[in-house]
Specification:
It contains 7 helices and 6 strands. It has 186 residues and is α/β, with parallel strands linked by helices. It has one domain: 3-Layer(aba) Sandwich (Rossmann fold), CATH 3.40.50.1950. Helix 1 links the parallel strand 1 and strand 2. Helix 4 crosses helix 6. Bound molecules: flavin mononucleotide.
Length: 186
């Protein structure tokens, strides 16, 4: 059984987070640990028709972002890694500078100090030099991967959902998790 921590922060792209959680829920070999920021809750209400409770129901364990004493705040709690999707520039700044004033940020800090995989689906446009400096800094940590939700066309998508599936497939490939209808380049 793989254990994956999913963090959702307040950047645009909530359908991506929901798509990812649905894929993980459908996989009997994955246990999902979820933490959302306040900004994420606001953005979910803005960008989707799903309630926060319905998002919670897609995970096996849900944490209060204020509870910095939760299990995922400790390196002794073993997980395979963490995905922050979508990842705001404020959360990027917090991770890059070790400023762990909420559980999501602390869990990222733990991934880095324990050298576990941390995938950041970072989303902002345009990117300022502050954003780019923080991202470049994080990209030098070998267990951190910056994976912005870029549009892809080589897989011949016919819908936004096809594009989302491609991105989610790429993210989950990092944990050797396969999803249906993920078109790999041949
Ligand atoms: C609808 C909406 C969309 C947003 N989109 C982005 C975004 O794409 N990228 C970003 O860095 N911040 C975005 N923000 C701003 C963040 O939510 C804000 O900076 C917040 O403080 C992030 O905190 P968090 O990372 O703890 O969730 C958005 C806010 C709202 C309300």
């Amino acid at each position: 059984m793989k254990k994956i921590v999913v963090g959702i922060s307040g950047a645009s792209g909530m359908p991506l987070a929901i798509h990812l959680l649905k894929e993980l829920k459908a996989n009997p070999n994955v246990e999902t640990h979820l933490v959302l920021t306040k900004g994420a809750e606001m953005t979910i209400l803005q960008e989707t028709k799903i309630s926060i409770e319905d998002v919670y129901s897609l995970a096996d364990v849900v944490y209060d972002n204020h509870n910095i004493g939760a299990s995922i705040a400790s390196g002794t709690f073993q997980v395979d890694g963490m995905i922050v999707i979508p990842c705001s520039m404020k959360t990027v700044a917090g991770i890059a500078h070790g400023y762990s004033d909420n559980l999501l940020l602390r869990a990222c800090d733990v991934m880095i100090k324990e050298q576990r995989k941390l995938i950041l689906v970072t989303r902002e446009s345009p990117l300022s030099s502050i954003h780019l400096d923080n991202l470049a800094y994080l990209s030098k940590i070998h267990t951190v991967m910056i994976m912005p939700p870029m549009l892809t066309y080589y897989n011949l998508p016919e819908s936004i959902e096809d594009m989302e599936r491609h991105l989610i497939g790429k993210v989950l490939s990092q944990f050797d998790i396969e999803i249906n209808n993920f078109k790999r380049w041949k």
